[in-house]
Amino acid sequence: MAKIKKDITNIVNQYLCHSCGSCFASCGHDCISYENTVGGYLFPKIDYDLCTSCELCYDVCPGDHFTNYLKSQTPNDPFVGNIISSYVGKSQNEKIYKNSQSGGVVTALLKYLLESGKISAAIVTSMNMESISYSEAKIVTTVEELITSQKSKYVPTNINSLMQKVSKIDGTIAMVGLSCHMHGLENLLTIKRKLRNKIFKIGLICDRVMTSASIDFLSQKVTNNKIKDFVFRDTLNTPYPGDITVTETNGKLKILDKKSRMLMKDYFTPARCLLCFDKMNIYADIVIGDPHGIQNVNKVNGESLVLVRTDKGKELINNSIEVNEITMRTILVDEAIKGQSIISKRKKWNAHYKAWEEMGYDLPSYPENIELNSIQSSKKEIQIAKKNLEQALSLDKYNSRDLLIKNANNYYKFRTIKSEIRKKINLIKRIIK
């Protein structure tokens, strides 16, 4: 029997695609492009007239599987990962700090690496309202470019697609990415081995992203005009942790309360995010995020949580402190992890994984210790998880983006009313007490 050739088409059809860009970087025949679905998913598409059935796109896809090398690198507890030390702090550069989302440490570290000559360039993500997913990965070489790329972009971005260009750059590169990007990068390095010692991995803590349709929805809550910029958490113009700001093409700034993003988070969450165990970006050299649950953090202007995972990461932090790029104070690892709700993550992952299986979809092939370190779910929790996954899959079932936005508005109204009722009930309870 002839061997069945494998590529990423079925992975996309099964909604296992992370949109990480690894398949694009693996293809030597330029036969992979990206398209934005009605629901706002960023999915690769193969031009079979150009495809040679080499299977490399399948081999590097982290949405479907981990390579044996990546499995061997998986820590004993994959929900936490190996941590050498943990800190809370901020950038010492006032411009970077004021323009940051929560501390500006990522930009400060990249600034140090560029100015010291330790890297030739950095891979970051910027908003671009002209791109198909409203965000784009780019290679930057100056501090000015870094500053324009600050703040998180909570939409899928195919960062790893730039690895073809990275291979042509002399020197070391720093990459800032989510867990899925690091998974894809590690898979990709099995075929691009010359890059293995060339990339410094700065990971971001990630609960999940939202499809790019969320930007269309949230923007229309404050304007019907064309926009040139969208910021999910703007701490420059609004108090920390930052409201949504939308900039029209005429320069006018529109502000939407951050509660709107939280209300719609479940509605626009991609299915693959719900199946991902790696909130803490366990394969990065350094991991940075919000310091949830940590005592005495600056809640007025914000600070960054920093987890050091490798000796390379430790050296970077120490050097950056020495040259006064960042200021850091040591915190207990247990305190850092507790604030990230890892217990809840263990349980939710297990529920969504089991629900996905019950729904008849293909399961991603993960190392065995991931399920062993999860928390077994009840039937009720699996049913809730199934509803979350069904909602994620339903985003692409509308005939147009306008119809999707219309339904999203109905959901928004429902959630708003529910939230107000909950507030009143809690107020009554407090009065009674």
Q: Which residues sit in consecutive blocks of at least 5 with pLDDT less than 50?
A: none
Strand count, sense and barrel status of the largest sheet are:
8 strands, mixed
SS-derived structural category:
alpha+beta
Integer average pLDDT: 95
Q: DSSP strand (E) fraction?
A: 15-25%
- In order across it, which strands form the biggest sheet? 5-4-6-7-11-12-3-13
Amino- and carboxy-terminal Cα gap: 73 Å
Number of helices: 18
Principal-axis shape: globular
* Percent helix range: 25-40%
The Cα radius of gyration reads 21 Å
Number of strands: 13
Short descriptors:
globular; 8-stranded mixed β-sheet; alpha+beta; 433 residues; 3-stranded antiparallel β-sheet
Would you summarize the structure shown here?
This protein is α+β, with helices and mostly antiparallel strands. Helices cover 38% and strands 17% of the residues.
